Amino acid sequence: MSGPAFHPEITLVLDRLRSAFNTGNIFRLADAVGVREIVCCGYTPAPPHPKLAKTAMGAEEMVKCRMFKHTVDAVRALRTEGCSVVAVEVDPRAGWVWDHEFRFPLALVLGNEALGVAPEVLDECDAIVSLPMAGSKTSVNVGNCAAAVLYSIIGKYQYGSRLS
């Protein structure tokens, strides 16, 4: 392989996550994979927050964070900044995450575990991707979902040439 690996520029948009522990876990993951920033929307816990800090283990100080009252406003702002915006959601319009051709810079929208990504936010996104769900439940923990999706994207775009 010649030259440095491409490092995809990714922002995570958290749409109304309830759990500070899940949010902290996502900050830790974001630091591990080099996410550009996290955008906390609605009532998503944001730094500084003691429960978030417990699971983030200092990553909340390493990953840039900004907040929006409404996720739709965050999506519109990110699009104005040049981001492609893709929701991660179980939805009839969704394709598999590994089949999607992502454009960078990229913003991934992750939703509330009980409610998912808000319908009005889905309508503002450029695309919707999902992970397969073979069980009777149609969701996984939002932090686990974020990890699977991020590593899928990073594997495809950053390290893909090492696999061939």
Number of domains: 1
Outline: globular
Strand order of the largest sheet: 3-2-1-6-4-7-5
Q: How is the CATH topology named?
A: Alpha/beta knot
Q: How many whole angstroms does the radius of gyration measure?
A: 15 Å
- Which oligomerization state do the chains in this entry correspond to? single chain
Tell me about this structure:
With 164 residues, the chain is an alpha/beta fold. The protein has one domain (10-162): Alpha/beta knot (3-Layer(aba) Sandwich). 32% of the residues lie in helices and 20% in strands. A seven-stranded parallel beta sheet has the order 3-2-1-6-4-7-5, sandwiched between helices. Strand 1 (10-15), helix 1 and strand 2 (37-41) form a beta-alpha-beta unit. The chain is globular and about 35 Å long. The model has no long low-confidence stretch (mean pLDDT 90).
Quick take:
The chain is α/β, with parallel strands linked by helices.
Topology of this structure?
Elements (H helix, E strand, L loop, with lengths): L9 E6 L4 H14 L3 E5 L8 H7 L7 E5 L2 H10 L3 E5 L6 E2 L9 E6 L7 H6 L2 E4 L11 H16 L7
